[in-house]
Amino acid sequence: MIRCANIKNGDLVVDPFCGSGTILLEALDVYQKQIKCVGMDVSRRSAKGAGENALAEGFGEDICQIHCCDARNFRKKLQE
After folding, report:
1. Which of 31, 45, 60, 69 reaches 20 to 30 Å from 13, CA-CA?
2. How far is CA 29 from each of CA 26, 42, 51, 64, 72, rounded to the nearest angstrom?
3. What is the pLDDT of residues 35-63, one digit of tens each?
4. Structure pTM?
């Protein structure tokens, strides 16, 4: 799925229903940290887990941000 998305180095990848963050982490791995990612999930447990997964894989908040929020806050979170 990541390879089909036509992502380029420097792009921002957003997953408004990120769950455990698998897609975002795969994107960071495939593109060797040359992109930035923002993930959102309404489940506090999922968002917390996604953040922990990102840190465990060596992806800090400078390149991978995870937010616990409803996808309707999509634009607001991207502006932060």
Report:
1. 45
2. 5, 25, 15, 12, 28
3. 999 999 999 999 999 999 999 999 999 99
4. 0.88
